[in-house]
Amino acid sequence: MNTAIIDANIIINVWRKEIDPATGNKLYVSSAKILDLIFKEKLRGILLTTTAMEVLHSVRVSAEIAGSPATFAMKKAERELSKSGLLLTIPDAGIMGMAYEMFFDIHTDPYDAIMVATARAENTDALFPAIKN
After folding, report:
1. Which residues contact 116 (CB under 8 A, 6 or more apart)?
2. Which of 77, 79, 117, 126 is the most exposed place for a label (fewest CB within 10 A)?
3. Whole-angstrom Cα distance, residue 36 to residue 63?
4. Residue 32: inside a domain, yes or no?
5. CB-based contacts of 62: which residues, under 8 Å, 6+ apart?
6. All residues at 6 or more sequence positions from 38 whose CB lies less than 8 Å from its CB, including other chains
7. Are 89 and 49 in contact (CB under 8 A)?
8. DSSP at 19
């Protein structure tokens, strides 16, 4: 079975049903297809703890802006993630070292560096950052 690292944008696109304001493209459609493959166990999806924190941070900020209880929103989001079929993975010291080198040497975003380092270490078939239709 193929394996893919999933970025926060994939999950957030679906949860928010995001549409690109410039093009009108429904960003969530392709993202939902990827998550559906994972849920149906046709694709092994890896979610890093750092990525999960990005998702939960977005949920918390959205709840705070809306005046809703942030803790409740985050717990609900955690439950949804746990049902998604995504395998939660904690980046180890080797991955973090590789990520630091990428972050420092080629000026990548720190979260993206961790995802790419994990993809290399896990020998994954795909890395799904943002999806554009």
Report:
1. 99, 102, 108, 127
2. 79
3. 26
4. yes
5. 73
6. 4, 6, 44, 45, 84, 85, 86
7. yes
8. B
Q: What is the mean pLDDT of residues 112-119?
A: 91
Q: How many domains does the chain have?
A: 1
* C-alpha gyration radius of the chain: 15
- Distances in whole angstroms, Cα of residue 69 to Cα of each of 10, 15, 53, 56: 24, 18, 17, 13
CATH number for the domain spanning 75: value is 3.40.50.1010
What would the pLDDT profile of 77-87 be if each residue is shown by its tens digit?
999 999 999 99
- Asked if residues 78 and 91 have their Cβ atoms less than 8 Å apart, the reply is no
In a domain, 133, yes or no: no
pLDDT band at residue 63 under the 50/70/90 scheme: very high
Residues 118 and 126: their CA atoms lie apart, in Å, by 11
Within 13 A of 46's CA, how many CA atoms are on the CB side?
A: 24
The predicted-structure confidence for 72-109, as pLDDT tens digits, reads as follows 999 999 999 999 999 999 999 999 999 999 999 999 88
Least confident interval from 1-10, 106-115, 117-126: 117-126
